[in-house]
Write a structure and sequence with these properties.
The protein folds into 2 domains: 87 residues, no CATH class; 154 residues, no CATH class. 17% of the residues lie in helices and 32% in strands. It is an alpha+beta fold. The structure holds zinc ion. Zinc ion (ZN) binds next to loops.
């Protein structure tokens, strides 16, 4: 993967295709990973808003050349953040992990239980290129904080136990700490980092946590808002292709866990 086309959300550390705001949390602090890499050494990126982010991005893009130009404007939190503090953080040599707050289900969300079935296609697992429907990869430091993460997936059908299928699509978060997840030690210069879009020289060490959803796998618990939509591919065997759809949206991802564990209250 070409890292120049990989963007990173500084707030939630999601690597993603080019975007003006984060595909999962909606934060405007999303920019090419090469541009924001200095910020990843810093744990607390509590920037106030678009304007300050734009200033900071301009500063980072122009490096020290931009500083004299920006200095007269930079009296807010951008400079409170401080070039000096960034430089000090940088000397820690490893990027700082952040705690990703658990995603909350939106009001009116329901939890459905069923088995994932292939719909249009699959994506290749980072681990072994096996076809999967959804995969969330998190790089975590030794304390368990998130350094970077990435989600790849395709829409899939959730075949329910007691009625027809539901189309699951859009922004999704696979909940961790279940058996969908594998933990792998990350080696220096690991080729899997490049596949994720991580610059080769970014100081990363820790573990890879990979949570995958495969077709026909173990039963899932899927939480989100249920709506009715027309889906062209399903029109041939369904009235006008109307089907219940769970569509994850920015700021309100679909939450996917494993049914067995949720049923057991773990
Ligand atoms: Zn984000």
């Amino acid at each position: 993967m070409d890292t120049s086309s990989t963007f990173c959300c500084v707030q939630c550390r999601l690597l993603q295709p080019p975007a003006t705001s984060c595909a999962e949390c909606g934060s405007p602090t999303t920019a090419p990973v090469e541009l924001v890499r200095e910020l990843l050494y810093y744990r607390d990126m509590s920037l106030a808003g678009h304007g300050e982010w734009a200033l900071l991005a301009a500063f980072l893009a122009g490096s020290s050349l931009a500083l004299p130009l920006l200095a007269p404007f930079a009296l807010g939190s951008v400079i409170a953040l401080g070039v000096d503090r960034l430089r000090r953080a940088r000397r820690k040599r490893e990027i700082a992990g952040v705690a990703i707050p658990p995603a909350a289900a939106p009001p009116g969300a329901v939890t459905l239980y069923g088995v994932a079935r292939r719909f249009r296609g699959t994506v290749a697992s980072l681990i072994d290129d096996a076809p999967v429907l959804l995969e969330h990869v998190a790089i975590k430091d030794r304390a368990g904080a998130v350094l970077l993460r990435r989600t790849e997936g395709a829409p899939f059908l959730l075949e329910l136990e007691d009625r027809g299928p539901v189309l699951v699509t859009g922004v999704a978060r696979v909940s961790t700490a279940n058996v969908l997840m594998q933990r792998l030690a990350l080696r220096h210069g690991d080729p899997r980092l490049e596949k994720l879009g991580v610059p080769a020289d970014l100081a990363i060490s820790g573990d890879l946590e990979v949570a995958s959803v495969a077709a026909d796998g173990p039963a899932l618990a899927v939480t989100g808002l249920l709506e009715d939509e027309s889906v062209a591919e399903l029109a041939f065997h369904r009235d006008g292709g109307r089907i219940p759809v769970m569509r994850g949206r920015v700021g309100a991802p679909i939450l996917i866990g494993e049914r067995r564990l949720i049923g057991a209250g773990l």
